[in-house]
Write a structure and sequence with these properties.
Number of helices: 8
Strand order of the largest sheet: 3-2-1-4-5-6-7
Strand content: 5-15%
Distance between the termini: 32 Å
Order of helices and strands: EHEHEHEHEHEHHHE
Amino acid sequence: MGTQSLEDRTAVVTGSTSGIGLGVARALAASGANILLNGFGAKAQIDKLVADLKAQYEVKVGYSAADMSKPVDVAAMVAQATRELGRVDILVNNAGIQHTAPVEEFPVEKWDAVIAINLSAAFHAIRAALPQMKSRNWGRIINIASAHGLVASTQKVAYVAAKHGVLGMTKVVALETATTGITCNAICPGWVLTPLVQKQIDDRAADQRIPVERAKTELLSEKQPSLEFATPEEIGAATLFLCSEGAAQIRGIALPVDGGWTAQ
């Protein structure tokens, strides 16, 4: 991991105070990139995370409390990274929320929130970061989409629509930057054991009055043929590969890390 291949690069990772985003931030920091974290959490917890990452990886680490549902906040986050860390070379759009309900019962405000955070925030961040990437003729834009960017499930209309939208946006950005040193790709995780997914497992166990382990197995067996969760570390490794020179001609793809989910 510590190849220092991303030394002197700076990465912004949204939704990176826990889960997949933190896994990605750690992987990038381990390769020498300076990091701007973003996400929710208690101040003491975030301060500790920033200090730990600085100490462990010997890189610069900043933090933005930007609310991804607010375009002004998203633009300010990119500006903050540029001001405090010098530049933005790598942008990982990871922040996401979930809500489940049948279409006709889906609350309008939940639809708006999921689209804002899972889709529009990525657009606003890309729009803000692209000019400086173009000025240096190098950049890596990685959108953390989902297996739900490629296939659908019931009860998740906003999430599935947003993630499909992310893949469309990824392709457009890839085409618009095709003759440059900037690439734009998406990673499509299946079930990853994060706090968000753990909550779904706990809810299922409570609703069906079954043990948590059984709820976990049932969740996986419905979608993920490997019957194993992907890990934040694996998503981090995929991100590192897409940042590498070896991935210079990988443009506009959706890379599933999903235990076979979308192969079915």
